[in-house]
Amino acid sequence: MQKSLVIALIIAVVASTASIYLYDKCVQAETKYSLLRIEYLSLLEERGKYVEQQKSLAERLQNCTKMLEKAAEERRDAERDVEELKDLISTNPERWTVRLEGSIVERLDKVKRAIEDSLNSPIISKFAEMIVVSDAVYLNGKRFSFDYVEDEAMLKEKDAIVNPEWFLIHRVGDCDDVAAAMAAVMKVKGYDVRFCVGQREGESGDSKHAWVRIGDEDVDYRYCVNRVCEMEVGYFGNIAEKCVEI
């Protein structure tokens, strides 16, 4: 009887010890599993970030490639335009002048005929194709500019205009000349064009200024630096005395 009790106690102690040991191992396994799971989730998150970064880099690379292709295409277009412009310049169209005499209506009528006579010119068509109109008038990515020279100095006339083709090639003249050329170009580009005569905001006197009006905006030069004037587009407060539709 005592022997059986001793054996039972021994078995109970062994079983208890084994249970504690197994429980400890189980806790260790669960702890290790939790740590491994946390590490796995962390690695999974890092992998997700890496994949997103790879995707972002791929998109940026694709965008850069498109930008480079576009820049190369624009460069080719610009080089082609320059070559075509050189060809146009080499034609060196004959200069003819129209004296602006009589009333303001008579003068505008002469300007209108001169502009309309130039609309079928390949020079006007090519400039209309190359010129871009936004906040200013751009030619080959640069603001269109001209050298301001009075009629008396260039034409030995008090008031006259040159044919728009000649002006676009040489880009020398006064407000009448540039306005006539811009009117021809804008008309070929498809704008509703009016050639206007009047005064700039804040100016007074007998001196008249000429500019082009497309829709509600004016195509005009505002400032000249060393007699080099850049063409801008917008509302500048010009007061039109009379306009003629082209």
Automatic annotation (TrEMBL):
<feature type="coiled-coil region">
    <location>
        <begin position="54"/>
        <end position="88"/>
    </location>
</feature>
<dbReference type="InterPro" id="IPR002931">
    <property type="entry name" value="Transglutaminase-like"/>
</dbReference>
<dbReference type="InterPro" id="IPR038765">
    <property type="entry name" value="Papain-like_cys_pep_sf"/>
</dbReference>
<protein>
    <recommendedName>
        <fullName>Transglutaminase-like domain-containing protein</fullName>
    </recommendedName>
</protein>
<keyword id="KW-0175">Coiled coil</keyword>
<feature type="domain" description="Transglutaminase-like">
    <location>
        <begin position="167"/>
        <end position="227"/>
    </location>
</feature>
<dbReference type="Pfam" id="PF01841">
    <property type="entry name" value="Transglut_core"/>
</dbReference>
